[in-house]
Amino acid sequence: MSSAQDEARLQNARETIDCLDKNTLSICVGMIEQGANPDTLAAVIKELRRENEAIKTQGTG
Fold first, then answer.
1. Domain spans of the chain?
2. Are 12 and 42 in contact (CB under 8 A)?
3. Which one GO biological process term can you cite for this protein (predicted)?
């Protein structure tokens, strides 16, 4: 893992794992073990979080 892209993927994975509870992390690991693309799964999680934050912001504005 010497490329910058691999390092970026590792960092994204670390950030995702740091923010998931045990149950959610377990579900994600299971999905990856069943063949889900880890990068795509991480992107979906990030997008869901962005949408959640946007909804929260709209509710307080």
1. 4-60
2. yes
3. mitotic spindle assembly
The pair of structure tokens assigned to 59 is 């509710």
Helix (H, G, I), strand (E, B) or coil at 36: coil
Closest to 15 (Cα-Cα) out of 5, 3, 7: 7
Task: Examine the pLDDT at 30 and tell me if it is beyond 90.
Answer: yes
Amino acid at 31: M
| Token pair in block for residue 4 | 């910058």
In angstroms and rounded to an integer, the radius of gyration of the C-alpha atoms of the chain is 14
Q: What is the pLDDT of residues 2-12, one digit of tens each?
A: 688 888 888 87
Is the per-residue pLDDT at 1 higher than 90?
A: no
Please name which of 42, 22, 23 lies closest in space to residue 32, comparing C-alpha atoms.
42
pLDDT value of residue 17: 64
